[in-house]
Amino acid sequence: PGKKVLIVYAHQEPKSFNGSLLKIAVEELTKQGCSVTVSDLYAMQFEPRATRNDIAGPLHNSEEFNYGVETWEAYKRGGLSKDLVEEQKKVQEADLLIFQFPLFWFSMPAILKGWMDRVLVQGFAYDLSKSYDGGLLQDKLSLFSLTTGGTKEMYSKGGISGDIRYVLWPMQHGIMHFCGVRVLEPHICYAPENVSAEKRKEMLTAWTQRLKTLWKEEPINCSPEWYFK
After folding, report:
1. Which parts of the chain span the membrane according to its record (predicted)?
2. d(Cα 38, Cα 114) in Å, to the nearest integer?
């Protein structure tokens, strides 16, 4: 009870399977006494492009634009655009970040990648001397909850798509762990569009059950071995 959760949700349709997973998470976590905030990126028409519009006020170097440097300088002086400040505040307050999305091309949808690109700026989420276990967002947990088009067999070590863990490496390790966030085991619903209604119901029940004991879970061992062993 009393824990704060931010769910960053990237699906266009509330009636989708991802929409159902979101709804379950909000209901179940609220029932536990958590306060849950949702950033529904499509509904917000979140801007995924990292541009100079992200800096309010004068640029640090108006001769040559360097996004990383400019957002870092803007963050330090409180000069980031309003939408970024709002998202950073939600991240700052959260004990747990849940990312809910369908896998697109072995990655996250562009709108969610844009959220990562724009919100997790230097100075806020990491510093070059403070990354991975020393990242600036320590004491936070994250969980990637995603749906796939392919089956579990396709995403196995011997399958055509390779181990799903390879796909998760850039997201879980390259972004979350880099920023110091601890990572819970991902929650993957394989090919919900291609299974029976009964099987889909089972998937939703499994998500509800997992959420009930979520706070007792240990984060994964954030090392290359977990992904590539």
Report:
1. none
2. 17
Share of the chain residues as helix, strand and coil, in percent rounded to the nearest 5: 40, 15, 40
Q: What is the CATH number of domain 4-228?
A: 3.40.50.360
What pLDDT, in 10s, does the model give residues 23-54? 999 999 999 999 999 999 999 999 999 999 99
Q: pLDDT tens for residues 70-117?
A: 999 999 999 999 999 999 999 999 999 999 999 999 999 999 999 999
pTM for the whole structure: 0.97
Where are the domains positioned within the chain? Answer: 4-228
- Which ranges of the chain would DSSP assign to H, the alpha helix? 17-31, 67-77, 82-93, 110-119, 164-168, 197-212, 224-228
- Residues 41 and 87 sit within 8 Å (Cβ to Cβ): no
User: Cα(224)–Cα(218) distance, rounded to whole angstroms?
Assistant: 17
Q: How far is Cα 66 from Cα 74, in angstroms, rounded to an integer?
A: 12
- What is the residue whose two structure tokens read 């929409």? 19
Q: Is 161 exposed, middle or buried (0-12, 13-18, 19+ CB in 10 A)?
A: middle
Distance CA 97, CA 182 (A): 10
Residue 141, beta-bridge partner list: 96, 182
